[in-house]
Design a protein that fits this description.
The structure holds two protein chains of two kinds.
Chain A: H1 9-14, H2 17-39, H3 43-60, H4 70-88, H5 108-119, H6 124-134, H7 139-146, H8 150-169
Helix pairs in contact in A: 2-3, 2-4, 2-6, 3-4, 4-6, 4-7, 6-8, 7-8
Chain B: H1 3-11, H2 24-61, H3 70-96, H4 104-123, H5 125-143, H6 148-192
Classes of the chains: A mainly alpha, B mainly alpha.
Chain lengths: 172, 199
C-alpha cells in the first residue's frame, strides 16, 4: 500500500527537481518496472517504454505542486504513457509474445513471466486497473489515478476480479 | 494460479537494474532534442509558407508578366491562407496539449479530441489545403500558357496531384487514425462503464 508523502508541500517544492527525480525513481522504480513489463511485450518495447516514462516524469516535475500524492502522480504519468504507447504500436506486433511460458514452470521467475503474459490478455484499460489493484491501492487512490468515482471503482474492481480469476485459472 | 500467489509474484517483481536509470544530463539532452524537433518542424512549415506567399506575391505585383496579375495574387493568397491555417493548428495543439499528469479518463478524452481533430483535418484536406492553392493555380494554367496542349498538361497534373494528396490523407486516416480512435473509445468505455452497465 502506498501512502502520501509526509513532507509538507512547501518543503517538497523546495526540493531541487533533479533530487526529487532521483528520489522518485529510487522509491518507485519497481512500480515503473511492473508497468513496463505489463505493457511491453518484448525487451525492446519495455526499454522504450521505460525511457518514455522516465522522460515524461522528468518533464512533469516542473508542474508538480503537491496537489496529488507523489505515487498518484507517477501512476498517472506511467499509465498514460503506457496506454499511449500501446495505441501507437503496430497491430502486427500483437502476435509476438516473448513471455509465453509453459504453465509447468515452478520457479518464481517463470511463474512471474507466465503471470505477466496472462495479464496482458486483459484490455489496456483493465490492465491499468489491475496494476493499481495488485499494488494494493485504496479505492480513493485508484479513483484519483483513473479519474472515475469511488463507487465506479468498486464496480470495476469486482468485474476485474472475475476476469483475473478467469485468466489466471485457465492454466492453473 | 490463485490470486494471492499472483499478488505476491506481482509485488516481488525485481526493481530494474540501476544501469537502466538515465542520468539527469541524458534526460535534459533528450528533452532538448525532442523540443528541437518540434520547433524545427513548426518553423520549417512557417518559413516555407512565408517564402511561397512572398514569392507568388512578388510575381503578381512586380510586373514580371507585364502589369499586376490577379491570378498569381490569388495563388499567393492561397499559400498565405494554408500557412496561416497550419500555424493556427500548431498553436492550438500546443495550447491544448497537456502533460501526462491528468487522471487516465481525462487524458484519454483529450487524446480522443486530438485524434478526432486530426481525422477532421485530413478528411477535409481538400478545402483547407488543396483547393486554396490548386484553384488559383488552375486559373493561372487556364489563362497562362499559349498552347492548349501545355494548358491541358498543367491542368491534368494539377488535378492528379490534388487527387493523390486527398487519397493519401484518407489512407492515413483509415490506416492509423481510425484504429487509434477505436482504441481510445474502447479504453474510455472500459473505464467509464458504470454501475448500471451490463456485466
Amino acid at each position: 500500500m502506498h501512502t502520501k508523502s509526509d513532507k509538507p508541500v512547501s518543503s517538497r517544492q523546495a526540493l531541487n527537481d533533479g533530487d526529487r527525480f532521483e528520489r522518485w525513481l529510487a522509491q518507485h522504480g519497481a512500480l515503473i518496472e511492473r508497468i513496463c513489463r505489463l505493457y511491453g511485450r518484448t525487451i525492446e518495447e519495455r526499454d522504450d517504454l521505460r525511457q518514455d516514462i522516465h522522460l515524461a516524469i522528468w518533464r512533469s516535475l516542473a508542474t508538480y505542486r503537491g496537489d496529488a500524492s507523489e505515487v498518484t502522480w507517477i501512476y498517472r504519468v506511467a499509465l498514460n504513457v503506457a496506454l499511449s504507447a500501446e495505441r501507437k504500436r503496430s497491430p502486427e506486433a500483437d502476435d509476438t509474445d516473448v513471455d509465453e511460458l509453459p504453465a509447468t514452470a515452478r520457479d518464481d521467475d517463470s511463474r512471474r513471466q507466465w503471470l505477466y503474459a496472462r495479464l496482458r490478455e486483459l484490455t489496456p484499460a483493465d490492465r491499468s486497473l489491475a496494476v493499481l489493484v495488485l499494488d494494493g491501492n485504496s479505492y480513493a487512490d485508484i479513483s484519483e489515478v483513473l479519474g472515475i468515482s469511488v463507487s465506479n471503482v468498486g464496480v470495476r474492481i469486482n468485474r476485474l476480479k472475475g476476469k483475473l480469476k478467469k485468466v489466471l485459472g485457465e492454466q492453473a | 494460479m490463485n490470486i494471492d500467489l499472483a499478488i505476491n509474484l506481482w509485488r516481488t517483481t525485481p526493481a530494474p537494474d540501476q544501469s537502466l536509470t538515465p542520468s539527469q544530463a541524458e534526460l535534459k539532452k533528450r528533452q532538448r532534442r525532442l523540443a528541437g524537433q518540434v520547433r524545427r518542424r513548426d518553423w520549417t512549415e512557417a518559413i516555407v509558407g512565408c517564402i511561397c506567399t512572398a514569392f507568388f506575391a512578388y510575381i503578381a505585383l512586380a510586373d514580371v508578366f507585364g502589369g499586376m496579375r490577379w491570378d498569381w495574387l490569388a495563388v499567393a493568397m492561397g499559400c498565405g491562407f494554408v500557412s496561416a491555417f497550419m500555424i493556427r493548428e500548431r498553436v492550438l495543439v500546443a495550447r491544448v496539449r497537456q502533460a501526462n499528469t491528468q487522471p487516465l479518463v481525462q487524458s484519454l478524452e483529450n487524446d480522443l479530441r486530438a485524434v478526432e481533430r486530426q481525422i477532421y483535418l485530413l478528411r477535409n484536406v481538400a478545402w483547407w489545403y488543396v483547393l486554396p492553392i490548386e484553384l488559383p493555380m488552375l486559373f493561372v494554367a487556364l489563362t497562362g500558357p499559349e498552347f492548349a496542349s501545355i494548358r491541358a498538361l498543367f491542368i491534368t497534373m494539377g488535378v492528379v496531384l490534388a487527387l493523390v494528396i486527398i487519397a493519401l490523407n484518407r489512407w492515413v486516416v483509415r490506416k492509423t487514425l481510425l484504429p487509434q480512435r477505436k482504441a481510445l473509445i474502447a479504453a474510455l468505455n472500459d473505464l467509464r462503464e458504470g454501475l448500471d452497465s451490463p456485466t
